[in-house]
Amino acid sequence: MDFQLSEEHQLIRDVARRIAKERVAPRAAEIDAKEEYPEDIFAVYRDAGLLGLTIPAAYGGSGAGFLALALTVEEVAKYCCSSGLMLLLTALPTQPIVLGGTEEQKKTYLPPIAKGEMRAAFGLTEPNAGSDAAAIQSRAVRGDKGYVINGEKAFISGGAVADYVTMFAKTDPAARARGISGFIVPTTTPGFTVEHLDEKMGVRGVATATLCFEDCTVPAENLIGGKENEGFKTVLGTLNSVRPIVAARGLGLAEGALSYALDFARQREAFGGPIADLQAIQFMFADMAIQIEAARVLTYQAAWLVDQGRFQRQDSHMLSIAKAFATETAVKVSSDALQVLGAQGYMRDHPLERHYRDARQLMIVEGTSQIHRVIISRALLDRDLVYP
Ligand SMILES: Cc1cc2nc3c(=O)[nH]c(=O)nc-3n(C[C@H](O)[C@H](O)[C@H](O)COP(=O)(O)OP(=O)(O)OC[C@H]3O[C@@H](n4cnc5c(N)ncnc54)[C@H](O)[C@@H]3O)c2cc1C
Fold first, then answer.
1. According to the model, what pLDDT value does residue 299 have?
2. What is the DSSP string of 173-227?
3. What percent of the chain lies above the pLDDT cut of 70?
4. Confidence category of residue 383, pLDDT binned at 50, 70, 90
5. I need a labelling partner for 284 at 20 to 30 A (CA). Which of 190, 203, 214, 238 fits?
6. pLDDT score recorded for residue 305
7. Where are the alpha helices (DSSP H) in the chain?
């Protein structure tokens, strides 16, 4: 067993670390306050070649993989969770095409993402179907001109800035999961509208949107993989493979929060000395480090599993464990780090209230903490896989 990162991974991490410190950190508070999609950060990523890490080289990406993306997201999320999400959104909406798309779809829709010429969003959740994704009600009907799509998608990250959405709709409404198909919908398609943007607690640099599809007609070539009713398999493969990237957002955020609180505790004086000298504070820091280091091993291992092609049912509990643990670590560590600052931690003069708000969404997106416990407990109870 080798816990050393490869030279390539170290190089990517070093590039991301420099970008995070020099370009992302100085912008983080403003991005949150203005609730504005940071085009400048997108351009930095594009120029550094960071937008196609999980896109295969044959389709314009670097093919560096999920561990490379996790390391990059970790660095950026130390300062700005929104900027981490922008990188995640190079993988989440493109994975359905990478995993299930036709050759033509891969050639058309993947290179522009890697080059930063297009952006995409992933549309699964609906107002009445979140965790129970098989209950989606969007409908796609085959007609003369292709598929006519009707429905509504809720809380879609990056939906308002996307050039296309990989979205899922029922082609066989009588069936649940087996009646779902995936579609690539360019956002210029008549009948597609961004209905509204949500007012949200955190991660305010990348808006979530409600997307409406009203007799929105796409050519039959836009059916992902060219086969109906294969969409749910693609959804599961996509969500499983992106779990380590959500985990990396949590890991980076927790590291950033701890570093900030450490610096503060060395300066802040109480009862005749720095609060860093108080054992109560030192033990809080030690507990944060324990959680962060456990989250790191789980996150890197999960990303490595995905890079090995191991993101099907058999290994899904390890991906869920990483996602649940790292995102819950982000919430706990950002809360404790804020506590170290006392009243100042609660104020916008410091980044910890932002870290805390940002962390809170991570336990909800891409499978809530409860859903991951369902997956993990099923692996333990239904299969004899975990501890043979
Ligand atoms: C900031 C943000 C960004 C998002 N971005 C996207 C995106 O880009 N694309 C997209 O498709 N979706 C996106 N989502 C939606 C997200 O994936 C869903 O919110 C999530 O899947 C949970 O669904 P829900 O909110 O409908 O909650 P529900 O499914 O209604 O769940 C409500 C509560 O019940 C619990 N629960 C539900 N079922 C079970 C069960 N079987 N066992 C135990 N507990 C259960 C849940 O854990 C939760 O606590 C985003 C959400 C947020 C907050």
1. 98
2. TTSSGGGEEEEEEETTSTTEEEEEE---SS-TTS-EEEEEEEEEEE-GGGBGGG-
3. 100
4. confident
5. 203
6. 98
7. 7-19, 28-34, 39-47, 66-77, 81-88, 95-100, 103-109, 111-114, 231-267, 279-307, 313-340, 352-362, 369-382
- Section 247-265 average pLDDT: 98
Q: In angstroms, how far apart are the furthest CA atoms of the chain? A: 80
Q: Give residue 386's pLDDT.
A: 73
Q: Give the type of residue at 143.
A: G
| Ligand 1, atom 16: closest residue by C-alpha | 365
* b/e burial code for range 330-364 (CB count within 10 A of at least 16 → b): bbbbbbbbbebbeeebeeeebbbbbbbbbbbbbbe
> Alpha-carbon distance 380 to 176, whole Å?
25
Domains and CATH numbers, the chain: 7-114 (1.10.540.10), 120-229 (2.40.110.10), 233-382 (1.20.140.10)
For ligand 1, the distance from its centroid to the CA atom of residue 375, given in whole angstroms, is 15
Supply the pTM of this predicted model: 0.97
The pLDDT assigned to 387 comes to: 79
pLDDT of residue 281: 98
Rg (CA), the chain: 21
Decide: 248 and 297 in contact? Cβ < 8 Å: no
β-sheet bridge partners, residue 165: 121, 185
Centre of ligand 1 from the C-alpha of residue 248, in Å: 19
Instruction: Catalogue the active-site residues.
Output: 366
Q: What is the mean pLDDT of the chain?
A: 97
Q: Using CA positions, which residue lies closest to atom 43 of ligand 1?
A: 370
**Total Cβ atoms within 10 A of residue 1:** 2
Q: Is the CB of 365 under 6 A from ligand 1?
A: yes
Centre of ligand 1 from the C-alpha of residue 35, in Å: 22
Q: What is the mean pLDDT of residues 287-305?
A: 98
258-261 contacts, C-beta under 8 A, 24 or more apart: 258/285, 258/288, 258/289, 258/292, 258/333, 258/337, 259/78, 260/337, 260/350, 260/351, 260/352, 260/355, 261/285, 261/288, 261/336, 261/337, 261/338, 261/340, 261/341, 261/345, 261/352
85 C-beta closer than 6 A to ligand 1: no
